[in-house]
Structures are given as structure tokens and as C-alpha cells.
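User: Structure please.
Assistant: Input sequence and predicted structure:
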Amino acid sequence: MDYIALAIAPGLAICLFIFHRDAYNREPKLNMIVSFILGAVSIIPAFFIERYFYNSFNNSIAGMALKAFFVVALTEEACKFAALRLYSYPKKSFDEPLDGIVYAVMVSMGFATLENILYVTSSAAEGRGYQVALLRMFLSVPAHATFGVLMGYHVGRAKFNPTRKTALLVLGLFWAVFFHGTYDVLLFWQQSPGMEDYIINILLFLGAVISFIVALRLSWKLIYKHRVLSQQTYMPTANLKLRQAIQKDIPLIRELSHKIWPSTYASIISADQIDYMLQMMYSEDSLVGQMKENHEFIIVSDGKIPIGFASFSLMENGIYKLHKLYVLPQKQGKGIGKFVINEILKAMVRKGGVALRLNVNRNNKAKDFYEKLGFVIINEEDINIGNGYFMNDYVMERKI
């Protein structure tokens, strides 16, 4: 029983890890369990195919290579691919690229877990159960997971790229077979008498370990890439960070304003007025002056990437004014503005604030956004900003 527990543990641990990484739009547990079971079942056709062709090649260097790539790696990865493609791929729950990795790893862990049980129990009869269980715990089972990630990454892309669907599916199978075959051939060559003249077994084993590490590092990068996409799609505010800006951040604020203002105000005011107001409000001297007048600036970042900024100051009697709140165009409509407003309101409460006030252009659709957050129009203003330009604003306020 101890051997079986050791054989099952690594596969389940990896499944839990992948489940944890799929944090923003998790798959139905039943679908993942079925994928795991289908992965285990897929070992049956793989066993008979390998058994039929295994002795078709001799133990020469070339024969072992053909056996590793075409008999073992291609057979096993094709059987796992079939389970993934026929069951998981068509599911409605397969609704983002990361799901390709999730389901592929579940299938791979089902396959690897049953395979591990068979290897460990047979080795236990020879007195090597613990040795084989520990070795496979840190190499063979995680290796199957990396092959699954490589396959699932491309399968996930294929689901949402119809024009390249077939190419990406084939590519996913190819990379899984390539790394699986590379790992196996280095282990198989230890059994080839002809290899002893060229390289010692320990170097072959180290080569297999290195190939596994390469696959592991690549898998980690691919998981991260799809996970970021998942986060941006289903929980765009999860990695948002706010920090107080200082004078050293002025170049960053100016850079962001020049990226945001032209698209934000293109349909509201003229290009000349946009240029005029950017110079008036976002020149280095102007921003330094605003900071000296106790305008508190905030930098909004998605992870480590700055995506927007805000500023506010105390007006009178606990009433604060939000002077600026801007987010990069490609980040708008994802709840980021609401997140920033809520964080600012929390800060106002801690400072004893009673209301937050702001100005918004009367033709700016941002008015609807602020109304949804509880702001109400309390006044209208036409502010002469010089050079013949006006700011035609609503004054809006929300009680805290």
C-alpha cells in the first residue's frame, strides 16, 4: 500500500498545482476528473501498440532512437492527445487558451499515475519499490506533466485560432513527442551495447535530466503566458497595484498622458485643444506645481507595468476632488477605473473625508461610468482655460 501511495502522490500533487494555477476561470471538477480517468484508460491502447512494435527495432544506437521516438513517445503522446482532443477540446468549459494546458496535464497525469503504479509495484516485487518510486516521483511523472503542458499550450491556441487550428494541433503533438522522445532516448541508450564505446551511462542519465529541465522551464513559461491572458480576461484587477507618485514619476505621468489623451478626447475636443491642454496640465513645470499644491498622484500598475494614473486633493471640510483618472485605452472597460475609485474612496474614509467631487466633460461618456459608481451631477461649469478654449464640464459628487 505504501508503494501505491508513493506512486499516486506525484500525479495528484501536479493536478492540484495546475488546478491552483487556473485561478481565474476554473474548469468543472467533473471534467477534470474524467480527463484524468481517460488519461489512465489511454494507457491500454498505448500498451498494446508498444508491445506490438517494440521488438521491431534492435538495441543498436539507431534502433533505440527509433524505438524511443516512434514506438514509445509517439504512441503514448498520440493516445493522450486523442483523449484530450475527443473529450476535453469540444467542451463548452474549454473557453480560454489556458484550458488546453489544464486538460492536457489532467490527461497526462492520469496516464502517468497508472503507469507509475505499474512500474512501482513491479519493482517492489524485486525489492526496488522505494528506489523506483522516488526516482519517478522527481523525474518521470513531472516529465509527463511537461509534455502535457507543451501539447496543451498549442491545443489551447488552436481552439481560438480557426485559421491555424490544424497546424497548432499538430505542433502540440510534435513538441510533446519531441521532448518525450529526447528524454526516453537518452535513457534507452544506456541499454545499448554500442553506446558504451562513446559515452558512459551517467552522462546519458544527466542528459535525460537536462532535457527534462529544459522542458520544465519551457512549460513554466507557457503556463505563465496563458495564465496572464486568463487573468486579463476574467479578473483584470487581480494584479493591480497602486502607489503614490513622486516627482521622479513625472516623466512616466507625462508619457501615459500622451498615450491616453488623444484617443480619449479625439471625438470631444479638437486636436489643437488636446495639445494645448496637455502642455498646460502635463508639462513638467505644471506637474511639479500640482504636487507642491498637495495634489496626491497615484500610479496604477498591472503587475509591474504602469497602465494609468490618478490625482486628488483636499478641497474643504472633508470634501476631496478627483482631478485626474486615466487608464491606457487597451485597458479600459475592464473594471480598472472602478477599482481605482474604490481604493481612493477607502483612502478618503481613512482621512475623514465625507465626499469625493470631480469634473467631467459634458460630452464625455465617462459621465455614465461615474453615475454607475454613485456620483450625481451637482452643477455645470464652463471654465475658460485660455487661448479661446473652454472646459464644458459637469461637476459630480459622491457622498462617502
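The chain has two domains: 2-234, 240-399.
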